[in-house]
Amino acid sequence: MREIEEKARGAYVERFGEEPQLVASAPGRVNLIGEHTDYNDGFVLPCAIGRRVAVAAGRGEGGLYSADFEEARPLGEKDSSWADYPRGVAWAMVEAGHEVGAFRAALAGNVPLGSGLSSSAAIEAATALALDELCGFGLTGKDLAVLCQRAENGFVGVNSGIMDQYASLLCEAGTALLVDCRSLEAESVPLDLEAAGLALAVCDTRVERGLADTGYNDRRSTCERAARALGVESLRDAAEEDLERLSGEELSRARHVVSENARVLEAVEALRAGDFELFGRLMYASHASLRDDYEVSTPELDAFVELARGFGAPGARLTGAGFGGCAIALVPTGETGQIAKECRQVFDERGFEEPAFYEFVPAAGAELAR
Ligand code: ADP
Ligand code: MG
């Protein structure tokens, strides 16, 4: 049993006075490449990270308990707390016709909250797997991911795509997950960074994503206008030659989406060939496109990517929607600390917030603890 699963189990025993019937856990994620492509029906390539949320569950009264917040909440109504995630998953299951019945659960996690590493998908996915096992539904990972997205959209009230839940439920250790956001088909792609002596360094710039909502909505509507101007259903259907029929922001935004989709598919080929050099170059190209054409980078994200380049990292880019949040770099195993040291100094000199760093290799998706 992982440490975090042990913590959830211990909390359950302490709270409810008996062993849980099961413990499930699920990871956060980073997106390796394929940014702002999801709502254009395109491709994304996330992988799971080595930080998880664990849910110990059983039948009986007592509701929900968070070991991290040291707080009990009833199963019941939405109250805009952490408990809305497990409640939302149970709600989505019932709404889909699955009889959940009374259960109780204790939760513990170590995915940083609100950093863009998707602790929300982790808590949903762990709950979904726990309830699936407890109730004997036998649903697939994809089914559970769709229910988790339904929970986040329909119960919690956050309008997210499917990527995070897919990654948390379907990823395997040493792999990335290619997701076609139109067909919702997903395919595992080898990403054995450990064997290549590499790891993913994550820099959380801790920048409040203040402009995120307006900026995000603005990019979405520009993409819709560009697709309409080209007479296609979405920019997924646009080709490079089509771009010359656009101008201004519609041109630059569409150029990012069209080139980014192509980069994801090329990145998948690179990974299948074990070509991390090419994969890394595509990461840098993705960052440049997000910075120059999509205009969603920040001075902090740019600074980290340039530092990584200076360190000789094969690839680096902002990850997530931008306007703050995280950037990633491909680095030799164990070198995150060195980059972090230099990065903290540069950020300090420039008056940026103090960043946080993590090092990951592609980890396992949702699992029952043994
Ligand atoms: P992100 O998904 O980027 O981490 P969100 O705001 O979408 O940020 O989700 C964070 C929320 O998920 C937290 O505020 C909390 O309600 C819930 N959550 C995540 N991890 C845990 C945990 N270990 N215990 C309880 N709640 C958690
Ligand atoms: Mg989230």
Features:
globular; Ribosomal Protein S5, domain 2; alpha+beta; 370 residues; binds magnesium ion; binds adenosine-5'-diphosphate; four-stranded antiparallel sheet; single chain; 10 helices; Alpha-Beta Plaits; eight-stranded mixed sheet; 42% helix
Bound molecules: adenosine-5'-diphosphate, magnesium ion
- Structural class of the secondary structure composition? alpha+beta
What is the helical fraction, as a range of percent? 40-55%
According to CATH, the fold-level topology of the largest domain is Ribosomal Protein S5, domain 2
Sheet having the most strands: 8 strands, mixed
Number of helices: 10
Oligomer state equals: single chain
Order of helices and strands: HEEEEHEHHHEEEHHHHEEHEE
In short:
With 370 residues, this protein is an alpha+beta fold. The protein has helices spanning 3-16, 84-95, 119-135, 141-156, 163-170, 212-230, 248-272, 276-292, 299-310, 336-349; strands at residues 22-33, 43-58, 64-66, 71-73, 104-109, 175-180, 186-190, 198-204, 315-319, 326-332, 356-360, 367-368.
